User: What shape does this take?
Amino acid sequence: AAKFAVKGFSEALVNDFRHNAPHLKVSVVMPGHIGTGIAINSARIPGRGPKEMSDDQLEAARQRMERAGFAVGKASNEELRQGLQMIGEMFRDGAPMTAAEAARIILDGVRNERWRILVGKDAEALDRLVREAPEEAYEPSFMDKLLEQSTWAIGQTR
Assistant: This one.
């Protein structure tokens, strides 16, 4: 909700600034899958990094992974920890775009005073699909369409 609020507020500022403060500019950045450590680092901040997880936290993660279709029921806690770490590393290392490439696109967009900056083919596909069929955006079939049309997938190489 916070990201959507920032996006909506920023979009509202675009028109307001044009009329009331033309010397101010705003850019809305919508990134796709970028090769960063966010998947690993986000878990570490609240103490939920794979290496620090308690047995109860691991059990909750195991249940979430099972619901998502990953057969991890027989894995030991140590194997689960290693798997969770590996998933985060694959997200980072298998991204279709590096952080440096994303930064270049973002900075070029800001320099060119673009108010809307899509970063990556997957961000472009997501944006296009939502605009084409906004009422389908939260249906399970939407993710299938997105995966068909975008280039991101865990483990995919650049």
Notes: DSSP finds seven helices and four strands in the chain.
